[in-house]
Predict the structure.
Amino acid sequence: MADREIWRISREVIVAETSTKARELAMDGPIARSWRETALPTARRFGMPVETITGPDAGIGWDDMDELIEYCCEQIWLVGDSDEVAGKLNAFNAGVGGFGTLLVIAQDWDEEPWKRSMTLLMREVLPRVNDVRQPALP
């Protein structure tokens, strides 16, 4: 059995005072830009099925980049206010069966929004996250 305590999980994370502000920062900033200009086109170029990203039921194709970016913001990236991100992180933890370390993927952020997001993550989100080193109980 895999030792969940040594697992490292990486995700884009942006926390703001409101979920609307966090979503704005994600969709109008470096996270969406990086995925739109680099990550998704590279995956497509190498022949990755879009369902690898969205799952089989999303109904989103490579040709609808705006909808694909929206899906990523809602389903893959950890974006929201402190409550929303804590909930998403707890759900993610339960979904993968526990992990040891969250690695926050850094983008080319302006310093102030990045610092604010990391401060909120540290002070308001992480204290409310279940112990990610242990598998979540059913």
In short: The first helix runs from residue 19 to 27. The domain at 4-128 is CATH 3.20.20.30 (TIM Barrel).
